Amino acid sequence: MNCRHCQQPLTLPFIDLGVMPPSNAYLNSLVQCAQEQSYPLKVWVCENCWLVQTEDYTKADELFTADYAYFSSTSSTWVAHARRFADQAITQLKLSEDSLVVELAANDGYLLQHFVHSGIPCLGVEPTSATAAAAREKSIEIVEDFFGVALANQLCSDYGKADLMVANNVLAHVPDINDFVAGIAVMLKPKGVCSVEFPHIFNLIKERQFDTIYHEHYSYLSLHSVSSIMKTVGLAVYKVEKLPTHGGSLRVWVALTDAMAIESSVSTIMDEEVQAGMASADGYRNFQTVISTVAKKFHEFLQQAQKENKIVVAYGAAAKGNTFLNYIRVGAELIPAVFDAAKSKQGKFLPGSHIPILAPERLVEFNPDYVVILPWNIRDEVTDQLKSIVPPHCKFVTAIPQLAVV
Question: Which of 87, 242, 307, 368 is 20 to 30 A from 112 (CA-CA)?
Answer without folding.
Answer: 242
